[in-house]
Amino acid sequence: MIKPRTPAGVMELLPRDQIAFQRMLDTIRQTFERFGFLPVETPVMELSEVLLTKTGGETERQVYFVQSTGALGRADEGLPELALRFDLTVPLARYVAEHERELAFPFRRYQMQRVYRGERAQRGRFREFYQCDIDVIGKDSLSSRFDAEIPAVIAAVFERLAIGAFTIQLNHRKLLRGYFEGLGIAGEMQLLVLRELDKLDKRGADAVRETLAGEGFGLGAEVIDKLMAFSQVRSHGHADALAKLEALGSGGALFEEGRAELRAILEQLKALGVDESRYALNLSIARGLDYYTGVVYETTLDAWPQIGSICSGGRYDNLAGHYTKSKLPGVGISIGLTRLFYQLREAGLVAAADSTVDVLVALLDDSGLEHALALSQRLRAAGLNVETQLEARKLAKQLQYADKAGIRFVVLRGEDEAARGVATVKDLRRGAQFEVPEAELTAALLVEREQQRALG
Amino acid sequence: MIKPRTPAGVMELLPRDQIAFQRMLDTIRQTFERFGFLPVETPVMELSEVLLTKTGGETERQVYFVQSTGALGRADEGLPELALRFDLTVPLARYVAEHERELAFPFRRYQMQRVYRGERAQRGRFREFYQCDIDVIGKDSLSSRFDAEIPAVIAAVFERLAIGAFTIQLNHRKLLRGYFEGLGIAGEMQLLVLRELDKLDKRGADAVRETLAGEGFGLGAEVIDKLMAFSQVRSHGHADALAKLEALGSGGALFEEGRAELRAILEQLKALGVDESRYALNLSIARGLDYYTGVVYETTLDAWPQIGSICSGGRYDNLAGHYTKSKLPGVGISIGLTRLFYQLREAGLVAAADSTVDVLVALLDDSGLEHALALSQRLRAAGLNVETQLEARKLAKQLQYADKAGIRFVVLRGEDEAARGVATVKDLRRGAQFEVPEAELTAALLVEREQQRALG
User: Fold this and answer.
1) Which of residues 45 through 74 in chain B touch A, CB cutoff 8 A?
2) Which residue of A118, A320, A391 is in closest CB contact with B143?
3) What are phi and psi of A226, to 5 degrees?
4) ipTM of predicted complex
5) For B31, nearest residue in chain A (alpha carbons)
6) Which of A145, A302, A322, B178 is the most exposed place for a label (fewest CB within 10 A)?
7) What are the structural domains, with CATH classification, of chain B?
8) What's the mean per-residue pLDDT of chain A?
């Protein structure tokens, strides 16, 4: 006998949790489609040679390689032919380059699939997890107007997921680089300084200040003041965001370009009707410095900052330089849904969902089977999800089962009801019960279900 | 520069094909839920030790093992810890055994995920493919009434997929075994005889007859006649199915048990209102002889028999004997959707779908941007999928783009329209164009879309 168990670092759900998870996936997909993004799925296995062009040693250690039985043990032949994707960005780059001539640009795609990382297993860290990505890829160029559409999608997704107030935080790499260069901080040093500034919350201002003034950095007090002030800029509301941008003073060409683009994004978000509480400047965020080149986004739940960013991304200059000579600039974001779901559940913000089953057609004794089957099919034809109780059991057992499973309605038809041409409906949610003429049963249940949906 | 390409043996689709595929997945999922099945997803990676208990050498050779970089080259340590699932049945067995105490039985689950086989790549063979499975698992016992519900689900799925007339073919392992035993053919020999009978179409009656009479089998002419007659039984319509069952003559206890169960299944299919053209006896089908123990199903497209079975399954005695002492009998089926989609496309039965995007909001010049953004959001709020043209281009280009992408409606608002408070809608499907007051635009498009959907 083998102990049945899953590997460490994966998330497997019981049905009612799976339903809750699936509803989040459906909401995200629906919202991505609402904004005109097209579905793409790629194979979970890519050729190692293709997948690993871009990644450094750090990522490579986390890659899962795939070998069929026959190929095992032939370890001396270099890397195995196949590997599991570790994100959806490299497969997108490969996909766009491979199908370049068949796609229309700007190419707007969404992709919601699992990715794999050979991480050390620990609580809340996943080796297999869903990513839900959107990207817009231009050919040769891509208007910065697309940069403003992305936060509108983020806002719509999280409004519809209804997991609480959130803020989409905006920064801009050109603004950041321009500002740093204005202070005489260039190249690699920018990265190092940003890393230190990122520790402000944890280490406190004094400790960070000391590091920046010390060996390796050697920055003057005035420069440090400016850096700290800059990285602490946060805005509250639309007008404040514009004002805070102005208040940064003047800068070089790169800085002004970044500022103009951020300004345009803010104006476009307003035109899109995105509530001004949903977006804000946060000049401390940087994200993958070697990858993003324009606007960057992070999204946090206002009441749960400790969860960190739940949706991040930004603008990049060239998606697929390893695979094609075409220049493919893009902008996109990613939601790590497995981790988000896990954390929402830990925080008590999502619970097991009601069943996908709307109605249980009960069976009180075997003579009722034929009728129960026909009735179930009638309800299904009207669009209701129906489970038929195929074996007669005590009513109490059937009600108990429905209740535990999260099924709202139980339909009964005993001899008495049959004689009078009615059915009894038990509404387990409201703890109520009513009789309906059989001919009106379908309509009555549909109305109840619609009311339930309208109430959310 | 690396050539961007996918590994052999995977199916990757362009967006309009992906939309068609996704619609099939959605239809199948919706139908599974309509019949009260609950969603389950399991990780793509299982522990090798857990996954490979059940499989013989044949399957094992086709398994993909997974190793992170650090573990590569340690080939002498036996099998790698992780492997990719090769079907959804073993993961179901593991899932049910692992969560046995948290699940309600009979447990009705559906699962639609990708599985992996390390097959030699050849045209139409896939190393990665979707399976769409349903199973009902009982604890200790499971009424044979569930056996009749499964073909009703199959019928509903393929009616809604609308890929042509189909027949669900029924046989029963007890009927088969009982009949063979009545002819003095027992144990292993049944399997060998069935294999020969399976070649009837290919080899012809004379050749099969010769083999069964020859060395190794040594069956008499009368026995061979009976075997061939039995395996050629096909029914047409409900009454004929019952009559053909009667016409088999009498047999032993096992044979009669199988016949009684088949009869009950036929009666229940009638009570469920399944059209009698959708199901038939086919006493030649056997399927996984060591696994199935009761009814077996195969489904074929009437006009495309060469595609083979598109949905198969049956009843089994014990799902998870390797993982738990509980007896878990079940019944289920599987649709290999990747292969089916591939074959339907080859046969010209599915085509690239229209876009998920309902409306393209055109942009004639930059001054219209703010209005286009607000209008797009209004249409989205009403439930329409909208792409906004963010960069002004010639109208002809925008129409051409929408047409190629399969977007039906293009909404325009030039200076003239703006002055009069109207918008122009171009319906690319019908090649028509009409003007609507702006305030009525949302309603007009919703009505058009509903009409389109109603027409399928």
Assistant:
1) 45-47, 49-50, 53, 60-70, 72-74
2) A391
3) -65, -45
4) 0.95
5) A385
6) A302
7) 7-156+336-344 (3.30.930.10), 165-302 (3.30.930.10), 359-454 (3.40.50.800)
8) 93
